[in-house]
């Protein structure tokens, strides 16, 4: 049994070798340095690289399982993977704490006016009269009700917020006061003070949010995107901000990445940008390896993979 990782995993490499002494592990920094003879023999692949494309899959005749060390799997060639009967697992849940922390950093930065306070500091202004809004009783609406959204909604409820979830089926989900169908979203926007996108990228969600969506939101809405940038076209979010269809946005993901240095987003004063960093956590590899180990035990015993198996037809 040969397991190949297309990234170095630090102390997780020795952890894997010790726990599975009868399994051969090989670790490489990047797909570009993977020897062809190793690629042809590998049974299991650990990666999150865009280079794992159709050509790569075709050149991996013995591949049975891709352990994707990220949540989003939208770059994988699912049609070919399905044809070849390759199983895929992802790192769903690994980033839940990290993204939730960033989400509330953004929300509190806005509601507590921390950027304005810092500007006063720079100008040596001592303003003890400033009063800020509480997030208690604010309504936060999540586009997507997966693991990350559930963790964030749990935190929101600690703050005394009302939580609304929108998903494809309208099914009830723990930590959400109400849930609605994705197609009902336009009728629900007006209830929300904060709207957070956490939907995966699929055929159904690609460019899902149009100008009509943003126009249907409250003018005081704070929009936060820590899901997928392709949920909307860049010019659509630019128009929403310029025309004040929404009050402000915090964006960590973009339609095209890296963000073009000529992007209009850099010149708009009611948006704050981070460079797709909200999921970057120092413990990500350890948490993803926990998932991999649970699945590898089942795989070696010829049992079904038990955690984070990706539905090939749905793409997540």
Automatic annotation (TrEMBL):
Coiled-coil residue windows: 104-131
Residue ranges of every copy of the D-isomer specific 2-hydroxyacid dehydrogenase NAD-binding domain listed in the record: 105-277
Domain of life: Bacteria
Domain D-isomer specific 2-hydroxyacid dehydrogenase catalytic per the UniProt entry, residue ranges: 22-306
CDD domains: PGDH_1
Keyword vocabulary terms for this entry: Coiled coil, NAD, Oxidoreductase
InterPro entries referenced in this protein's UniProt entry, alphabetically: D-isomer_2_OHA_DH_cat_dom, D-isomer_DH_NAD-bd, NAD(P)-bd_dom_sf
Molecular function via GO: NAD binding; oxidoreductase activity, acting on the CH-OH group of donors, NAD or NADP as acceptor
Pfam families: 2-Hacid_dh, 2-Hacid_dh_C
Family, similarity comment: Belongs to the D-isomer specific 2-hydroxyacid dehydrogenase family.
Record's protein name: Hydroxyacid dehydrogenase
């Amino acid at each position: 049994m040969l397991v190949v990782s297309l990234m170095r995993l630090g102390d997780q490499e020795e952890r894997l070798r010790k726990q599975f002494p009868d399994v051969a592990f090989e670790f490489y920094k990047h797909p570009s340095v993977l020897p062809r003879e190793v690629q042809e023999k590998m049974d299991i692949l650990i990666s999150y690289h865009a280079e794992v494309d159709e050509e790569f899959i075709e050149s991996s005749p013995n591949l049975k399982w891709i352990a994707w060390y990220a949540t989003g799997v939208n770059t994988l060639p699912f049609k070919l993977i399905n044809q070849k009967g390759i199983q895929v697992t992802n790192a769903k849940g690994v980033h839940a704490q990290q993204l939730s922390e960033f989400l509330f950093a953004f929300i509190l930065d806005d509601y507590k006016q921390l950027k304005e306070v810092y500007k006063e500091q720079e100008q040596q202004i001592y303003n003890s009269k400033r009063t800020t809004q509480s997030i208690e009783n604010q309504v936060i609406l999540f586009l997507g009700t997966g693991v990350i959204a559930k963790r964030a909604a749990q935190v929101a409820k600690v703050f005394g917020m009302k939580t609304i979830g929108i998903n494809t089926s309208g099914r009830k989900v723990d930590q959400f006061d109400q849930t609605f169908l994705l197609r009902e979203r336009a009728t629900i926007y007006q209830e929300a003070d904060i709207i957070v996108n956490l939907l995966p990228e699929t055929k159904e969600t690609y460019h899902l949010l149009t100008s009509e969506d943003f126009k249907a939101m409250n003018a005081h809405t704070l929009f936060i995107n820590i899901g997928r940038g392709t949920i909307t076209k860049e010019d659509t979010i630019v128009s929403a901000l310029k025309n004040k269809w929404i009050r402000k946005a915090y964006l960590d993901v973009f339609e095209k990445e890296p963000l073009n240095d000529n992007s209009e987003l850099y010149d708009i004063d009611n948006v704050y940008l981070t460079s797709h960093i909200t999921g970057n956590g120092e413990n990500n590899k350890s948490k993803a390896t926990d998932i991999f180990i649970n699945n590898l035990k089942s795989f070696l015993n010829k049992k079904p993979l038990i955690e984070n198996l990706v539905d090939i037809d749905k793409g997540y």
